[in-house]
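Assess this:
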Amino acid sequence: MRHKFLKSLSLVTLLLAGCGNLSARTTQEFSDHDPIHAITRENGSGTRTAFMELFGLDEINPNIMVTNATSVVMTSVAQDVDAIGYSSLGSLNDEVKALKIDGVDASTETIKSGQYTMARPFNIAYKEKDLSKLGQAYINFLQSSQAAKIIEENGYVANGTGKDYFPSKLSGKLMISGSSSVAPIMEKLKEEFEKLEPDTQVIVQQSDSSSGMNDVIDGTSDIGIASRELKESELEKGLTAFAFAKDGIVMIVNMQNPNDTISKDEVKKIYEKSDLTWSVLE
């Protein structure tokens, strides 16, 4: 059955010689026969790595559009009626629609219960031998009840001890860098930590998971953040990892897309090829 939905694309300003400025609104129909516009993250992205592992992809078709941040993926999908992408569960907004995977909704509850299996860790990484007292205190804070509250309120699953963090009257600066998926929740966590330890400054720099790990290895950051498991090569270079939270990988489509669910196999097929239409969804 052919589905049709109208979507306003943009307000186009036409400049006609001698006639002034005219405005016209163009529209686009959604159809099962439309080509799927798949969007992926860049190499080095922990979200991309986790997505490929979870959906059993050895590689992503090189003709598929590449973006460099979760926010860009969501904006691109929100503006294209035929787009599909993947995002962090905690980063979802009301401008895109999350699809069920094999009939299961992505939520903190379904991740905790194991029903939703498309989940990955949010890891921090550090060198134990180089870790400062402030760095250790921050890691302790990430496992605390105060941190768990913030993590859960923002749509992630906390993975700490649940014990309260008690301030130690610390001072100094802590540098954290890495994943653009982890950075937003890390910003909120560091704000709470700085309230508890007002003489400290925690700086969060957003890049990607691999860059964050390399920053710690090179000594330019105290703690790296990754939205994937650490690689053997990273662990061999002296990194220690701790998963402070768990996050779902969610398939997202435009709000005008009538589909509500997709299978794991269909996702794999879409990202292995670049010439499929929406009729591929059963």
Notes: Residues 1-27 have pLDDT under 50 and may be disordered. The two ends are 11 Å apart (CA to CA).
